[in-house]
Amino acid sequence: MPDETVLVVTNRLDATSDPVIEELARRRVRVVRFDTGDFPTASRLAATLTGRGWAGALAVGDHIVDLAEVRSVWWRRPGEFRMPDGWPEDARAFAASEARSGLLGVLSSLPALWVNHPSKNAAANYKPHQLAEAARCGLDVPRTVITNDPTHAREFIGLDRVVYKALGGGVERSDGTRATVPTTLVAAEQVDASVSGTATLFQEHVVKAFEVRLTVIGNRLFPVAIHAGSEAARLDWRTDYPSLRYEAITLPPAVEAGVRRLMDAFGLFFGAVDFAVTPDGEWKFFEVNANGQWHWLTRHVDMPMVDAMADALEKGTVQ
After folding, report:
1. Rounded to whole angstroms, what are the CA distances from 18 to 76, 166, 315?
2. Which of 91, 175, 236, 284 is a good FRET partner for 262, with 20 to 30 A between their CA atoms?
């Protein structure tokens, strides 16, 4: 019998997966890194349907992955499929669509531990859905509207200022980088007809004592306070990383219970959950990123996140 395999599906430049792969290798766990961008030009799939599901192999470089021996799959940041050069554009588009349905269809059917299953990620990535689910799970969500009606937006804002946030994770540029929109303060008089051009999210401006990035890996929770050191970071800490200070903290029991309900509601094993904590100690839920970044936090706080992820992938069960 071949060794059971941990399959890490991600691109070559994903630094978050590197320390986990190294830790698994140190434990002598068979781990194979696979980028969907290498299919079909540099990898091969040979799968046959049986009464127990798909059997066969995925060839990745010098590694042969027996589909029946995949213990766990970490679905990190896979690249886009790369079709053979020289094909007509229509043929390339068709081939990419077939690759997505075929390869991902086979892999997603494997009865392994998924961190997270792509279908679960997709459902959780709709911010309006997660905000509604978070509220139902007992988490405190700031007042929010989603609209393309400028009048509705102005009525919501009133005499205050609110924040505008992008609903998605940005768009990919031609060079492969992502263009994102930072959180922005908005007054009613700034709302114009451009709002009518698409769905737009406006949210109550929360006064923050600090923010929290909570990394959830199975049953293990790692909350880290993020203290902003500049005005820009106080509005959106992603805009000024050098000013940030980090601190390991403890979750209030009610918040922990709400997060666990939320993770169960979406069927997520992993999540990066963002909160703001007000000067009065209220925890305001912002979002859960089903495939968010977390490893940079381990350079600032002593938390065994790498070990927790390696433990889960090695054992193939919820930790």
Report:
1. 11, 30, 19
2. 236
pTM beyond 0.85, yes or no: yes
Q: Under CATH, which number does the domain 5-115 receive?
A: 3.40.50
Top CATH class of 122-142+206-319 equals alpha beta
Q: Which residues pair with 40 in a beta bridge?
A: 82
pLDDT digits over 182-238, tens only?
888 999 999 999 999 999 999 999 999 999 999 999 999 999 999 999 998 998 898
Using CA atoms, how far residue 36 sits from 81, 113, 150, in Å, is 6, 19, 42
How far is 281 from 210, CA to CA, in rounded Å?
10
Record the tokens describing residue 2, joined without a space: 């071949």
Nearest CA-CA partner of 309 in 289, 295, 288: 295
Q: Which residues pair with 31 in a beta bridge?
A: 6
- DSSP-derived 3-state class of residue 179: strand
Q: Which pLDDT does position 1 carry in this prediction?
A: 38
Cα(34)–Cα(76) distance, rounded to whole angstroms?
Answer: 10
Q: What are 267-270's contacts with CB under 8 Å, separation 24+?
A: 267/116, 267/117, 267/120, 267/123, 268/116, 268/120, 268/121, 268/124, 268/216, 269/113, 269/114, 269/115, 269/116, 269/217, 269/218, 269/312, 269/318, 270/115, 270/116, 270/216, 270/217, 270/218, 270/309
* Domain residue ranges of the chain, discontinuous segments joined by +: 5-115, 122-142+206-319, 143-199
